Amino acid sequence: MIHLQEYICLVFVVGEMQWGVSPKLGNCSHRAIELYPWLTFPASIPPAAQAAIFFVGSVYLLVSVIITCDNCFVPAVERFCQVFRMNTNVVGATVLASGTVIPQLYIGFAAVFLAQNHQSSLEPVISSSTFSLLFGLSLSAFFTGATVKLPWWPILRDITSYLISAATVLILISDGLIFWFEALIMIVLYLFYIGSMYFSTKIEDDLVNNWPKRANLSRNDYRRVDEQTQLTHTVASSDSEDQDEHADGDDVSDSNKENPFKVSHKDETNEGKDNKMATHLQQPAISQFSCPSSCSRRCSWLLVLPLYALLAITVPDCRKQKWRNWFLVSLLMSVLWLCLQVYLLVWMISVAGYLLSIPDTVMSLTFTAAATSIPTVMACMLVAQDGFVDMAVAGILSSNMFRLLLCLGLPWLVQTLLSPAGRITLTLHKLDVIYSAMTLLLCPVIVLVSLRLKRWRFDICYGFVLLIIYAVYMTFATLYKMNIFANVSLPSCILSVDGT
Question: What's the Cα-to-Cα distance from 54 to each of 143, 222, 315, 347, 375, rounded to whole Å?
Answer without folding.
Answer: 30, 51, 27, 9, 20
